[in-house]
Amino acid sequence: QVQLVESGGGLVQAGGSLRLSCAASGFVFSIKNMAWYRQAPGKQRELVARITSPGSTNYIDSVKGRFTISRNNAKNTVYLQMSSLKPEDTAVYYCNADPPFTSTSWGQGTQVTVSS
What angle do CA 47, 112, 89 make, to 5 degrees? Predict the structure, then answer.
C-alpha cells in the first residue's frame, strides 16, 4: 500500500525559506519518478517540481531558481527546498509519483503559508 507522508510546512514571511520532506513507502521508491504538487485555495492542484529516478529535475516557471527538488533513495524520501518565498506560494503541498498513483494515494499534505 502506497503511503506518502509530507512534513516541514509552516508560516513564514515573504523572502523566507522552508524545506519540505516526504517519506514514501509501499513501492520501490528508487525507480519511480517523483514530484511535488501544490493546491492553493480555490485552485486546482498543480505540479511544481519533478525529479526522475536518475535525478534529473524540472520546475514550473514560477518557482525556477527558488525551489530545489532532491531525493534520497536510501531513505525513501523526496525533499523540496523553497527559498525566496512569495505569498503566491501559499498552498498545501503534496508529494506523489509522476504521474501520480491512484486518487487514493495522496497524503495529507503540508500547509505552507507565506505572509507579506
Answer: 55
Cα–Cα distance, 102 to 90 (Å, whole number): 25
Tens digits of residue pLDDT in 52-109: 999 999 999 999 999 999 999 999 999 999 999 999 999 999 999 999 998 778 999 9
Phi-psi region of 95 (alpha: psi -120 to 50; beta: other; left: phi over 0): beta
Residue whose C-alpha is closest to residue 71's, from 105, 39, 23, 27: 23
